[in-house]
Amino acid sequence: MSNGPRIIFLRFTSSDSPKLLPWKAHYARVTGRSVTAPADVRPAGEVLPVTWHLASANNRMLARSAQIFLGFDEAEADATATVISGAAFDVKLVSDAVRGLYGWYALHEEAPRMTCARWYTTERDRRQAIALALVSIPAAEVNTGSRLVSPMTGGRSR
User: Fold this and answer.
1) What's the pTM?
2) R_g (Cα) of the chain, nearest Å
3) pLDDT, tens only, 58-111
4) How far is Cα 60 from Cα 52, in angstroms, rounded to an integer?
5) How many other CB atoms are found less than 10 A from the CB of residue 120?
6) What is the CATH architecture assignment of 6-149?
7) Distance (Å, rounded) from C-alpha 19 to C-alpha 17?
8) Is the CB of residue 40 less than 8 Å from the CB of residue 15?
9) Per-domain residue ranges for the chain?
10) H or E stretch including 133?
């Protein structure tokens, strides 16, 4: 286990998983774009949708992947490329004027690569979150394997 920032992978039970819906909604609100989960591939390969997030040493989520991937290999390749690209991102600042919240997302080569982990109530918090994510991503260790996120009573995951 890493003592520093790391990339953690989340695998969902299906592309229409109730646990994946909030992830899609967050992405759409932050970027103003829609995201579609890749179609499930089941019988032979048991490939399920996967996302990743950047976590700090104390397990705080710092950023999320800007795509849903069909399987762990695709997600791992994207996470590795994101780590390798370092802090070479074009960060876009966004706000939700209705709710008075601040967010951000990062582009690399014109494509969204990361989004904020959550919305922030102050501009100061957003700026600190961006700085922490950009400092952490080049140092992040890419974990191997993924955690299954399944809808269970009480919203727990395994």
Assistant:
1) 0.81
2) 15
3) 989 999 999 888 888 899 999 999 999 877 899 999 998 788 999 999 998 888
4) 13
5) 19
6) Roll (2.30)
7) 5
8) yes
9) 6-149
10) helix 123-136
